[in-house]
Design a protein that fits this description.
CATH superfamily of the largest domain in chain A: NADH-ubiquinone oxidoreductase 51kDa subunit
Order of helices and strands of chain B: HHHHEHHEEEH
Bound molecules: flavin mononucleotide, iron/sulfur cluster, FE2/S2 (inorganic) cluster
CATH topology of the largest domain in chain B: Glutaredoxin
Number of strands of chain A: 17
CATH topology of the largest domain in chain A: Rossmann fold
Structural class of chain A: alpha/beta
Largest sheet of chain A: 5 strands, mixed
Strand content of chain B: 5-15%
Helix content of chain A: 25-40%
Distance between the termini of chain A: 68 Å
Number of strands of chain B: 4
CATH architecture of the largest domain in chain A: 3-Layer(aba) Sandwich
Oligomer: heterodimer
Radius of gyration of chain B: 18 Å
Structural class of chain B: alpha+beta
CATH class of the largest domain in chain A: Alpha Beta
Shape of chain A: globular
Helix content of chain B: 40-55%
């Protein structure tokens, strides 16, 4: 059991030892090799890189070098990533075979390994992480420890002010003061709806009930979004600390983290964090010797999107099918086993300790009039720097896609971006300069959502995109409400007809009518928002829907039935590359003959389009 | 599926009892326990369901309802090679549908099904966390990034060759 004095002592000592993590001029002879062990890098062999470094250092008997595992650095597209501190050298796309050279050249001889450096947007090689354009426009609050600390070592968390906010709250503040601070900060829920966090805490605190619960929503259902996962993998203690602060504020002694079983690394690190915190007495009875007690358990989800909805999530924790409850009563009044329950999202929690330590005024000075602080986005799709970015609210989509994201690959054009996942909408080119916050996104027919941000280039068909999201909602509807269960299926059928060339003009109106009905008559957010991706794509790309319905043409060539892939004879240089890449040998012609495509064999996989160096195929 | 012989059933029941030991006999542990069983067997055998039903006092029908509700739980064993294509948005935008189509065509199997010889099964997932190298497919735990139809063909060729 640790006292606050002991906590302070660990912080002071560890902070000196770890100064080199944040200070490039640190006065030390040590070097730390940080190896990303986020899910992205892990799937391209970063665990082996970590092992190789350790082995080589031991074999060579090198002193003063430590190999550290960290969470995601954000630039996943360039992974696996290795960073050497204190000099902050950033190595990209490292393979296990590169370890030997990095150790010999960088560590032993002091020479940077040029070939592993990362190229910036303008093509120049960049040595330091902080010099990459990708990082320059970011502001890291929720992600401040990700990629800096070893998430499996509580002392490293403590070194960078970990559990200091909890200590302050328990000793210096009462429940009212905590709630006031959160209210004043302007923090709003990051799980999608943007409900004011302080207000929710107050409602839960004021609700009648002997027993109360605090829940963390780590279900992250938006496919292709990984903000919450990265926080849990890179800085799990930040979530535990915030849940404890919330428990103190609302009067709860028990917390649950509901996390997807599909996130094994996150679950593993959370469990380690919980065990270490218990060992230190930071979780458990009489924390820091006060009369506040709090404990946390993990509950695993099992792959149902609707369980991200708060009342369905409660059903699932209680061991049932995750079907949403009718609201009101809200969880703040009647949640887990009928007790008042506070539910917040992972990223919402990740801001709490910072707000307590740096103050509500500091936090509310960042962002726009109605949306304070920062937002983490998982940037994906047709953009160069796929990865995790955290920006102040009010940053424009253009800055995110073109500055931080490095623009669109393969010389293609930006067509649209989708935020809010299956509940959100698309944002076309003409709105690229909209400052992103909860209100402005709603105004243009999309929503903030939890942070998935998918970029699409001009080879993407918007009818297909709408169909994709509808397929998702159809398979994820829990079936409780008829309009959601049947209505979304009808919409999907229409979209399938349009994509296969069997649609008609009237289908567009049918879609609109169904959309309106489903929105009105579903009980939970899944059904209420399921038509959004269709409504917004129809709003901005109506012409494309018409082309599918009337002219039976898909200009983006994604709908196979509506497109033919052909080689432009004038541009073909007969290099034969397309032929070698075609998986079904559909391309005919030999030697110096112009190539042509046998339409009966072609499966329209588009491989040839991508492989032609002369852009002769389209 | 063929009827399970009694000794296998007995073994599964014993193993499941072992899995459940750390859990209190409370209903809210149902999903946790099913997750562990799914992890161990790759599906949830009938014998395991019966054992869980007795231990937690939850009727079989309700357990069946829970299993079919959650996508992660399956009632059929997966193939020796479970090939799974990511249909998360990041992968979809980069063309994972074409990869899934090709996979179904080559193995002559539908999504969620296992081949008769038990060698292959097809699955889809929603974001395996490797969006940075999208599109992605996996064979058991191995992740293949920057996937193309061609790469899938190569991987399948290799697996089929190993099985000959
Ligand atoms: C269909 C549906 C799915 C949702 N999925 C998630 C999710 O994956 N993660 C999340 O934090 N919130 C999700 N939410 C929002 C939650 O219901 C809830 O508003 C949120 O957890 C509250 O936390 P916050 O105020 O901190 O955002 C979802 C809502 C709906 C309707
Ligand atoms: S709206 Fe859809 S998902 Fe939500 S409760 Fe109704 S049927 Fe279930
Ligand atoms: S790759 Fe392009 S230039 Fe080369 S043969 Fe094919 S179509 Fe002609
Ligand atoms: S997972 Fe390694 S940088 Fe994101
Ligand atoms: S969407 Fe496929 S890995 Fe994320």
């Amino acid at each position: 059991m640790k006292t606050i004095e002991e906590l302070n002592k660990i912080r002071a000592e560890k902070r000196i030892e770890l100064d080199l993590r944040k200070n490039t001029n640190a006065d030390t002879r040590e070097k730390h090799i940080l190896v990303c062990q986020g899910t992205g890098c892990t799937s391209s062999k970063s665990p082996q890189i970590l092992e190789n470094f350790k082995k080589i250092i031991e074999e060579k008997g090198i002193q003063n070098v430590r190999v550290i595992k960290t969470g995601c650095f954000g630039l996943c597209a360039k992974g696996p990533i290795v960073i050497i501190r204190p000099e902050d050298t950033f190595y990209a796309m490292v393979t296990p075979d590169d370890c030997e050279e990095i150790i010999q050249s960088h560590i032993v001889e002091g020479k940077v390994v040029e070939r592993l450096l990362c190229k910036d947007i303008d093509g120049t090689k960049v040595t330091k992480l902080d010099d990459l354009t990708f990082y320059k426009k970011q502001k890291r609050i929720a992600l401040k420890n990700c990629g800096v600390i070893n998430p499996e070592d509580i002392d490293e968390y403590i070194a960078f002010d970990g559990y200091r906010a909890l200590a302050r709250v328990l000793v210096e503040m009462n429940s009212d003061e905590v709630i006031e601070t959160i209210e004043k900060s302007g923090l709003r829920g990051r799980g999608g709806a943007g409900f004011p966090t302080g207000k929710k805490w107050r409602a839960t605190r004021d609700a009648k009930g002997d027993k109360k619960y605090v829940v963390c929503n780590a279900d992250e259902g938006d496919p292709g979004a990984f903000m919450d996962r990265s926080i849990l993998e890179g800085d799990p203690h930040a979530v535990l600390e915030a849940m404890e602060i919330a428990g103190y504020a609302v009067g709860a002694e028990k917390g649950y983290i509901y996390v997807r079983a599909e996130y094994p690394i996150a679950v593993h690190r959370l469990q380690i964090a919980i065990d270490q915190a218990r060992e230190y007495g930071i979780l458990g009875k009489n924390i820091f010797g006060t009369n506040f007690s709090f404990d946390i358990e993990i509950r695993l989800g099992a792959g149902a999107f609707v369980c991200g909805e708060e009342t369905a999530l409660l059903e699932s924790i209680e061991g049932r099918r995750g079907q949403p409850r009718v609201k009101p009563p809200y969880p703040a009044q009647s949640g887990l086993w009928g007790c008042p329950t506070l539910i917040n999202n992972v990223e919402t929690y990740a801001n709490i300790a910072q707000i307590i330590l740096k103050g509500a005024d500091w936090y509310s000075s960042i962002g726009t009039a109605t949306s304070k602080g920062t937002k983490v986005f998982a940037l994906g799709g047709n953009v160069n720097n796929v990865g995790l970015v955290e920006v102040p609210m009010g940053t424009t989509l253009r800055e995110i896609v073109f500055d931080i994201g490095g623009g669109i690959p393969n010389g293609r054009e930006f067509k649209a971006a989708q935020t809010g996942g299956p509940s959100g909408g698309c944002i076309p080119k003409e709105h690229l300069d909209t400052p992103i916050d909860y209100e402005s996104l709603k105004e243009i027919g999309s929503m903030m959502g939890s942070g998935g941000l998918i970029v699409m280039d001009d080879t993407k068909c918007m009818v297909c995109l709408a169909k994709f999201y509808l397929q998702f909602t159809v398979s994820e509807s829990c079936g409780k409400c008829t309009p959601c269960r049947i209505g979304t299926k009808r919409m999907l059928e229409i979209l399938e007809r349009l994509c296969s060339g069997e649609g008609e003009e009237y289908d567009i109106y049918r879609l609109e009518k169904l959309a309106a009905n489903i929105k009105k008559a579903s009980i939970c957010g899944l059904g209420q928002s399921a038509p959004n991706p269709v409504i917004s794509t129809m709003k901005y790309f109506r012409e494309e829907f018409r082309q599918h319905a009337i002219e039976k043409e898909c200009k983006a060539m994604e709908c196979k039935a509506l497109s033919r892939i052909e080689i432009d004879e004038d541009q073909c240089k007969a290099c034969g590359l397309c032929q070698r890449n075609c998986p079904v040998n559909a391309i005919e012609g030999e030697g110096r003959e112009k190539r042509h495509i046998n339409q009966d064999k072609c499966i329209k996989c588009m491989t040839c389009i991508r492989s032609c160096p002369f852009h002769a195929i389209g | 599926m063929s009827k399970m012989c009694e000794c296998v059933e007995k073994k599964i029941r014993e193993e499941v009892r072992e899995i459940m030991k750390p859990y209190k006999q409370e209903k809210d542990n149902l999903i946790q326990i099913l997750n562990e069983i799914q992890e161990k067997y790759g599906y949830i055998p009938k014998a395991a369901q019966m054992e869980v039903s007795e231990y937690l006092g939850v009727p079989m029908a309700e357990i069946y309802g829970v299993i079919t509700f959650y996508a992660r739980f399956t009632l059929e064993p997966k193939g020796k090679y479970n090939v799974s294509v990511c249909l998360g948005t990041a992968c979809f935008v980069k063309g994972s549908q074409a990869i899934l189509d090709r996979l179904k065509e080559r193995l002559k199997l539908e999504e969620g099904k296992t081949s008769e010889d038990g060698k292959f099964s097809i699955d889809t997932t929603r974001c395996v966390g490797a969006c940075g190298i999208a599109p992605v497919f996996t064979v058991n735990d191995e992740v293949y990034g920057h996937a193309t139809v061609k790469k899938l063909d190569e991987v399948l060729d290799e697996l089929e060759k190993n099985e000959k």
